[in-house]
Amino acid sequence: MPLSSPKQQTIATLQADSPATVLFVDDNPDDLASWSAGLRECGSSYVILKASDGLAAAFHLCQDQQVDCVVLDLAMPPQSGLDLLMKLVPDRHHPNIAIVVLTVLRNPSILELARDYGAQACLNKTSTSVHALDEAIKKAIDTVSLRSN
Predict the structure, then answer these.
(1) Which of 26, 43, 53, 82 has a CA between 20 and 30 Å from the CA of residue 4?
(2) Is there a contact between 74 and 49 (Cβ–Cβ < 8 Å)?
(3) According to the model, what pLDDT value does residue 148 have?
(4) Closest by alpha carbon to 100, among 136, 130, 67, 128?
C-alpha cells in the first residue's frame, strides 16, 4: 500500500519544483529584515514578501498573489493581527492559507485564540530560532495542502 496518494505525490512534486511564497506581516521593519534574511541564510528557498504598512495591505496582497504561508505578528497597532487572521481564514476548519504566528506576546489565551482561528503554529520571537520558524512554515504549508485535498 503506498504511503501517499497520487494526488499528494503530485502536490509534493509541485511544491518541490517551485519555492513557496511566504508573506511576513509585521510593523517592525527590523524584525521583517532579520527573520527573512535568517530564512535565506538557513538555506530555505522561499519567495519572501513583506508587509509592514498595515493589515489591509497584507490582506489585499494575499488576494492579489499566491501566498502559501503568512508569518503574522499579533501585536500591531492600531489593529490586532487576529483581525487579519480571521479575514484570511474565514473557515478555520478548512483553511486555504497557512498561518504561522510569530509574536512577542506570551499570553496563552491569545495564542490559543490564534490557533482556534486557524493558525497552524504560534511562536515567540524572543525564544524561537530561524530553524524552528522554517520548520513551522513547512509544516503549516503541508498541513493546509493536505486539508484542502
Answers:
(1) 43
(2) no
(3) 65
(4) 136
- Phi, psi (deg, nearest 5) at residue 11: -60, -45
Cα–Cα distance measured from residue 33 to residue 43, given in angstroms and rounded to the nearest whole number:
16
Mean pLDDT of 39-61: 87
In 3-state terms, what secondary structure has residue 129? Answer: coil
pLDDT tens for 56-115 read 889 989 999 999 999 999 988 777 899 999 999 998 888 889 999 999 998 999 999 999
Weakest mean pLDDT among 5-14, 42-51, 68-77, 132-141: 5-14
Supply 21's cell numbers.
511564497
| Peptide bond connecting 78 to the previous residue in cis, omega within 30 degrees of 0 | yes
Which CATH number, 3.30.70.1350, 3.40.50.2300, 3.30.450.20, 3.90.190.10, labels domain 20-75+82-147? 3.40.50.2300
Q: How far apart are CA 28 and CA 119, in angstroms?
A: 21
Contact predicate 125/104, CB 8 Å? yes
